């Protein structure tokens, strides 16, 4: 499957983007306010047992969290995508917001997020659970919403005309036209989102900050404890469990879902279509038939109900129009008020910072950038040749792809405690551990995109290079690199995003009661949160967001649009 | 009169603050028991008229009357068949047909009964559970008809429903539809068909409305009184065919509305690439001196609509002439067709320099620059004063194609510049 470019076509900073950043900053300010003054001791600290018999229960808890986050994401992204694609006024803000939220490292909110939610909820477990679920939600919802928005915007014109000429009401149109037309993209994006969600889940199940222990029973905390205690057997069992879960979810949920989604294809081109034997079996089962029938009856029921309502109020359309512009004025003025207040307060926080504080932050930001670049560079060195080899060779692909997929399925944050255990006392220390984590989190994105890019090289071009006996160097320069470039850039964007996220968990580690700290923006954010230094927290978050957004807009996107410029 | 459109005009605003007039001052009526065809080339706005009458599109000016009452919403008594069948691929044949009834809130048992009846009517019984992609194009369009007919519309609109089908399938479907209509097997009281095929209109309609293009206006209305089923070899059929052809090509003095067109709305350069043009002229040259345009289109499996820009381009360069529905190759055209590649380019260059003002303008502009290069945006902006952005880009692309072939100027893909190559001095 070829990934579409998951962003809008902008590659400049516009006023609306600044407004979006202000929205995010005022949101951070809100978090800081809610979390400030957390002096109270954390009393919720469940014992985690490393015995094998506890493992299924921990795994189940983690799956439930993932499920809860995914359920919220599904509802949110459909509502968000629907509104953004149907109301121009909302679209103007909602889409740039998506764009920025997709690119900034959301894991940097983890510490302050957890602290403020524990503060808000008297029940600590509830606060922790919510923080974990909401973090996973924020990590996976944006590209899903973007895909719903994009699909609904791209609904073929004649479908809309059919809907109009036969007088479909909103519900009929949504269930029979808009939702089905969005389905394929939505399923693919859901799959990618959930994969990314594991990364956040593992990171947020257990972390230590300022000597305080934040933990939830789950497979992530199990692995972390196993690493701290150096229990190799438990580590292997934990990793095995994760792999089994992810492979099972892939086989039992995603494959049938993707095969099912093929019926929502709008173009009737002949193509190899994913199939699933499980789906065929399911389609034969009575229960599924009963469920799908009652679903259809429900939709028809809603439609008829709405039709009756519509008859009662004949001039519905004109009424609604006025109402919308009136509410939209209120909503927008409220939004501007909140954002204005929030961002003023946010910047007020940073006024304590002196010039050398700022210099420190920028320097730390630069160090993290260096680590990100190193990790991405190392990934490139091995993934590009391997990816091209796999992409150009069907036999090799059949052999290697399942193996690669299993490795890639392990969320990097799950193995991080193990990396720390091995590397913390080596010469590279925390610096090396940090880069290794980034590497683990990023290389797969690049690899998969390179494979996809290489697979899409047209056969006739490959034949040309054979007939003219291109030398190896020329073949790479003329054929391979230009062909894989757009896909490679998409992979790089996702990869750098992952690397920035990784910096938050990997630059500042408390291991067996000792603090290991690599100078970088991630560790600065952790230190600031644990000390309650909110000026520093505000300053470093600001600098990091600016860096990431600028690099995205001015480097990656420029290269991307350049690389597809001459495509036919 | 069931349905009437009065002084319908549709304009679209362009981003460059100009507007494009799609249709202008259309007066059209539909009587009970009547089958009307709207005939026009692409760009004549025939589908736009249909959408205005159905209430899908609000005209910039003008009014719609339904049974004498003004009507501005989507008309629930009109149903429509689309060019692409526009079936939902995720719904079975049954559900695709039933959806119009569901939208009306009709109770389930009745929905089922009517849907089965409609599927029977179009001859698709047995395919109720199939999905559209399992059906051939003709069968898909049958589902389109069933979906439109199941709601028992008073008026049926058809937007080129046969043009996506192969000849035999289309013929078959046309006959079946006509049978339903003439045999009073459907309660529909009036039909309105949009088409670019003269033969199709002549075969089916009681009245044909011919449109001019850019903007679309009514050129002429022709009643067809030949009784059904109509035989294409009938002398009256053949006479009307020729008559309508000449009207559409604008060669017979009828009302000559297109002389009123603003010059600016005619494209600066016909939208035809040199390769196609060369092939076309060689073909005409091979076929003989004088050819019937209708027969030529038929031989090439093209519609007149598709062939028109080719003829226009050839005529503009003085390679052919057209008269009373015939196309005649000129001396220069003959020379062009017979020449080898180098001489072809020479003849083409000469013709272009003489006849195509826009290319001359491009050359003069580039000549005036010291580096003999000019960026493409300049020319696009120039064209945008008169045309839409899309059309401007398309026209510049054609101009570049012509310029490259005639070796008058070149185009640098990387810098997006047009340039004149320095002549090696000898």
Shape assignment of chain A: globular
- Tally the structural domains of chain A: 1
| Reported CATH architecture of chain A | Orthogonal Bundle
| Count of alpha and pi helical runs of chain A | 20
Spans where pLDDT lies below 50 across 5 or more residues of chain A: 311-322
Class based on secondary structure composition and strand pairing of chain B: alpha/beta
Q: How many distinct beta strands of chain A?
A: 4
What's the N-to-C terminus distance of chain B? 77 Å
Major beta sheet, strand line-up of chain B? 6-7-8-3-9-10
Work out the largest interface and the residue count of each chain. A-B, 27 and 28 residues
CATH evolutionary superfamily of chain A: MetI-like
> Strand count, sense and closure of the main sheet of chain B?
6 strands, mixed
Return Rg of chain A in Å: 25 Å
Mean pLDDT, all residues of chain B: 86
Supply the number of helical segments of chain B.
Answer: 15
**What is the fold-level CATH name, i.e. the topology of chain A?**
MetI-like fold
User: Between the first and last Cα atoms of chain A, what is the distance in angstroms?
Assistant: 20 Å
Share in helix of chain A: over 70%
Helix/strand class of chain A: mainly alpha
Overall outline of chain B: globular
Q: Which residues of chain B form runs of ≥5 with pLDDT under 50?
A: 252-264
């Amino acid at each position: 499957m070829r990934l579409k470019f998951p962003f809008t076509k902008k590659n400049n900073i516009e006023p609306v983007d600044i407004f979006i950043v202000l929205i995010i900053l005022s949101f951070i300010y809100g978090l800081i306010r809610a979390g400030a003054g957390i002096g109270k001791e954390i009393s919720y600290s469940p014992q985690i047992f490393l015995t094998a018999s506890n493992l299924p229960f921990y795994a189940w808890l983690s799956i439930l969290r993932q499920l809860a986050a995914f359920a919220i994401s599904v509802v949110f992204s459909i509502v968000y995508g629907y509104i953004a694609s149907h109301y121009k006024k909302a679209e103007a803000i909602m889409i740039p917001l998506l764009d920025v939220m997709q690119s900034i490292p959301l894991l940097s909110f983890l510490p302050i997020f957890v602290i403020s939610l524990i503060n808000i909820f008297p029940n600590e477990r509830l606060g922790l659970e919510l923080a974990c679920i909401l973090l996973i939600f924020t990590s996976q919802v944006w590209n899903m919403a973007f895909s719903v928005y994009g699909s609904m915007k791209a609904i073929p014109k004649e479908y809309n005309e059919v809907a109009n000429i036969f007088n479909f009401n909103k519900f009929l149109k949504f269930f029979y036209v808009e939702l089905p037309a969005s389905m394929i993209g939505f399923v693919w994006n859901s799959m990618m989102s959930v994969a990314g969600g594991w990364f956040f889940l593992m990171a947020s199940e257990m972390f230590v900050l300022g000597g305080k222990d934040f933990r939830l029973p789950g497979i992530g905390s199990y692995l972390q404890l196993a690493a701290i205690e150096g229990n190799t057997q438990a580590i292997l069992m934990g990793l095995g469990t994760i792999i089994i879960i992810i492979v099972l979810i892939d086989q039992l949920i995603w494959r049938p879902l993707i095969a099912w989604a093929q019926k929502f294809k709008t173009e009737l081109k002949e193509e190899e279509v994913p199939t699933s034997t499980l789906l065929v079996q399911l389609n034969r089962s009575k229960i599924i038939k009963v469920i799908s029938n009652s679903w259809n009856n429900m939709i028809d029921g809603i439609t008829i109900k709405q039709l009756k309502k519509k008859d009662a109020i004949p001039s519905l359309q004109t009424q609604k129009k006025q109402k919308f512009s009136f509410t939209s004025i209120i909503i927008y003025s409220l939004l501007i008020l909140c954002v204005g207040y929030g961002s003023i307060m946010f910047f007020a926080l940073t006024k304590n910072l002196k010039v050398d504080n700022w210099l420190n932050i920028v320097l730390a930001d630069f160090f993290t950038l260096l680590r990100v670049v190193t990790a991405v560079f190392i990934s490139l060195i091995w993934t590009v040749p391997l990816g091209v080899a796999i992409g150009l060779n069907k036999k090799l692909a059949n052999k290697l792809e399942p193996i690669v997929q299993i490795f890639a399925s392990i969320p990097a944050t799950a193995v991080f405690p193990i990396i720390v255990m091995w590397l913390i006392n080596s010469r590279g220390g925390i610096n090396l551990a940090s880069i290794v984590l980034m590497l683990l989190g990023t290389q797969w994105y690049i690899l998969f995109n390179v494979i996809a890019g290489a697979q899409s090289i047209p056969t006739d071009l490959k034949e040309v290079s054979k007939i003219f006996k291109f030398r190896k160097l020329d073949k790479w320069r003329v054929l391979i690199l230009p062909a894989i470039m757009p896909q490679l850039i998409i992979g790089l964007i996702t990869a750098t995003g992952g690397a920035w996220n990784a910096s938050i968990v990997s630059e500042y580690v408390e291991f067996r009661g000792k603090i290991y700290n690599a100078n970088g923006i991630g560790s600065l954010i952790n230190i600031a949160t644990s000390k309650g230094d909110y000026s520093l927290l505000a300053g470093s978050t600001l600098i990091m967001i600016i860096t990431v957004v600028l690099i995205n807009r001015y480097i990656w996107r420029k290269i991307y649009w350049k690389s597809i410029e001459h495509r036919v | 009169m069931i349905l009437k459109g009065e002084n319908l005009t549709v304009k679209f605003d362009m981003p460059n603050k100009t507007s494009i007039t799609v249709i202008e001052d259309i007066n059209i009526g539909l009587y009970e028991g009547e089958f009307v065809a709207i005939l026009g080339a692409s760009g004549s706005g025939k589908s736009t008229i249909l959408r205005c009458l159905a209430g899908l599109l609000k005209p910039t000016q003008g009014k719609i009357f339904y049974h004498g009452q003004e009507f501005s919403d989507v008309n629930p008594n009109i149903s429509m068949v689309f060019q692409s069948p526009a079936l939902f691929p995720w719904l079975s044949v049954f559900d695709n047909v039933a959806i119009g009834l569901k939208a009306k809130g009709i109770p389930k048992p009745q929905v089922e009964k009517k849907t089965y009846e409609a599927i029977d009517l179009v001859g698709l019984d047995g395919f109720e559970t199939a999905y559209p992609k399992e059906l051939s194009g003709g069968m898909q369009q049958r589902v389109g008809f069933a979906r439109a007919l199941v709601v028992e519309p008073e008026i049926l609109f058809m937007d080129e429903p046969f043009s996506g089908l192969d000849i035999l399938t289309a013929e078959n479907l046309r006959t079946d539809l006509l049978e339903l209509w003439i045999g009073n097997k459907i309660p529909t009281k009036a039909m309105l068909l949009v088409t670019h095929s003269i033969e199709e209109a002549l075969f089916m309609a009681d009245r044909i409305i011919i449109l001019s293009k850019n903007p679309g206006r009514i050129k002429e209305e022709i009643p067809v009184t030949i009784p059904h089923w109509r035989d294409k070899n009938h002398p009256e059929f053949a006479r009307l065919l020729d008559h309508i052809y000449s009207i559409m090509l604008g060669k017979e003095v009828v009302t000559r509305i297109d002389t009123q067109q603003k010059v600016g709305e005619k494209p600066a350069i016909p939208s035809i690439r040199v390769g196609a043009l060369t092939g076309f002229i060689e073909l005409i040259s091979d076929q003989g001196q004088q050819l019937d345009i209708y027969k030529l289109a038929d031989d090439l499996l093209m519609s007149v609509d598709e062939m028109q820009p080719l003829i226009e381009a050839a005529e503009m360069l003085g390679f052919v002439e057209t008269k009373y529905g015939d196309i005649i190759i000129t001396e220069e055209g003959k020379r062009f067709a017979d020449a080898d590649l180098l001489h072809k380019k020479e003849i083409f260059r000469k013709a272009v320099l003489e006849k195509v003002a826009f290319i001359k303008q491009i050359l003069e502009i580039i000549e005036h620059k010291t580096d003999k290069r000019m960026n493409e945006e300049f020319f696009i902006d120039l064209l945008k004063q008169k045309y839409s952005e899309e059309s401007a880009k398309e026209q510049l692309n054609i101009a570049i194609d012509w310029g490259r072939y005639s070796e008058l100027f070149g185009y640098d893909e990387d810098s997006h510049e047009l340039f004149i190559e320095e002549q090696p001095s000898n």
